[in-house]
């Protein structure tokens, strides 16, 4: 369950970066895996989403948001779920 206490308040200046996001023009399903998706289908979908992120002008803000609120699902700021978890892991547990 997402802990909403980590979400920033509803100040439009904190969220206006989303208006410039490259993903606004893409199918949002590309960024979130359907239930049971595995293997090559998962990898292909995630790679396509990351391609969009790679050209996004607000990628750093998106990733910062996802890490701050510990977004548990999807591709955010060019990183998938496991990649974000690895960044958030304590230094002694990274790479295990």
Automatic annotation (TrEMBL):
- Give me the comment on cofactor binding: Binds 1 [4Fe-4S] cluster per subunit. Following nitrosylation of the [4Fe-4S] cluster binds 1 [4Fe-8(NO)] cluster per subunit.
| Entries under InterPro entries matching the protein | 4FE4S_WBL, Whib
Annotated residues for binding of [4Fe-4S] cluster:
23, 53, 56, 62
Key words of the record: 4Fe-4S, Cytoplasm, Disulfide bond, DNA-binding, Iron, Iron-sulfur, Metal-binding, Transcription, Transcription regulation
Name where it's found. Answer: Cytoplasm
Primary localization class, coarse:
cytoplasm
Post-translation changes: Upon Fe-S cluster removal intramolecular disulfide bonds are formed. The Fe-S cluster can be nitrosylated by nitric oxide (NO).
Q: Does the keyword Iron apply?
A: yes
Q: Which domain of life is it from?
A: Bacteria
Q: Which residues form the 4Fe-4S Wbl-type domain?
A: 22-86
Which cofactor(s) does the record list? [4Fe-4S] cluster
- Please report which protein family the annotation says this sequence is part of: Belongs to the WhiB family.
Q: What does this protein do?
A: Acts as a transcriptional regulator. Probably redox-responsive. The apo- but not holo-form probably binds DNA.
Name of the molecule in the record? Transcriptional regulator WhiB
Instruction: Record the organism.
Output: Kitasatospora paranensis
